[in-house]
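Sample pair:
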Amino acid sequence: MKDDYVIQRARIERLAKEMSPNCLVEFDPDNPPTWIKLRITHAPTGTILAVSSGDWHVTEIADKSDDQLRALIKSFGAGRI
């Protein structure tokens, strides 16, 4: 079930940690679970590394390859991640 939001959130976390091992991925708790809005911080310092550009439906995330999703995460960070 690739469209499962739990699977896609775990995938985002896995890829973000590959890109920045000390990061913390936080999902907006005010969004419905099928809509993803996130912030990535450097856990030791609290520095914000990336913030998603709006809300992403879980199917939009599921349709992206890992490489495409890495590029999207990088775009959220404007070079910080």
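The chain has one domain: 5-77.
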